[in-house]
Amino acid sequence: MLRLEDNVYNRRCRQDEPKFKLWKSAGLMLSYRCPSRCACCYVFSGPDVAEPATEMTVEMALDCWTAVRRMAGASGRVHLTGGEPFLDYDRLEQIMQAAQKAGLEGLEKIETNAYWCTDAQLVRQRLSRLKKLGLTRLQISTDVYHQQFVPFERVRLAARIALDLLGPQRVQIRWRDFFANPIMVGPMKENQRNKAFLNAMAKRPERLLGRAAEKLANLFPLRTYEEFTDINCKQNLLGARHVHIDGSGNVFPGTCIGIVVGKVISDSKHTLDRLWQQFDYRQHPIMSVLIEKGPTGLINLAQQKSYQPKPGYAHKCHLCYDIRRFLYQKNAYSGYLGPAVCYGLAPSKNTPPATH
Ligand code: SF4
Ligand code: SF4
Q: Is the CB of 41 under 6 A from ligand 1?
């Protein structure tokens, strides 16, 4: 298990400066592919994502999982997410099998949008199998955004069988109030749907990155970028105790997807624990600015490449995303920003999602 002083920056920083916290949990993004295309998605997951390099192999998943346990000991946690992790069910099962064989604990949950729950027998079969392989908790996503694409009967079926097989402690319905009173925005006119989105966000704010920045940000009152001056991201980036990791090995701090802390590779030199030990944010051209100055600090970098600020932004993350997207498009800060699918710039197969 690592200690704070095992990190190179923590050893060198002054005693009164905030430390770079140990990553105790990781979300393993098995794929960016998803049958849906939710407005709240903080990347651009969809049925048309065609980036094979971002598919996580069983080996990579195991390496990251093992590294989290090495770093944080018994408190190390992983969750399996996407995109939609059930889209490649065989791989999901292989990861669970391999983890069980390796005696790996610490699975927090597997997430799903339940799109695949079309048949009771199939749901029972898969969940029983995963239960035997150590499924600790199933998170079923259900909200106004997800139900634009996934028929609600599938969520209901998933919940019924999961509760029966796993018991209430091991099923997380996210969100229960919506599950009890679902609202279907699919048939609504755009202005009605936007109103439903705004109501949902008044209850639970969404991080305005990726598709959410493009689809939801403009529903809010907008403020000029100057109004975000002096709001830095020290706590979000230095204090994040968790990371997300995609199939290419990109490691993102917390939920700040698209900012690459570094890359893990399935070899003994580029592991997650090594990355954490060697990471000094002052050497990272994007994170150093965000930690010291927040997203308005990125404006200077972007203006050197002719970035034109928008008339307004809904939130500091909206501002941050917009500038990062611009820099990514300009091929600036390669290796520190990406991949393309986080910025809506990935190659596409143009497959339409089903809407309901
Ligand atoms: S929010 Fe989840 S279910 Fe919706 S498009 Fe993104 S990955 Fe898919
Ligand atoms: S502004 Fe950027 S770095 Fe800060 S919390 Fe939002 S996404 Fe993360």
A: yes
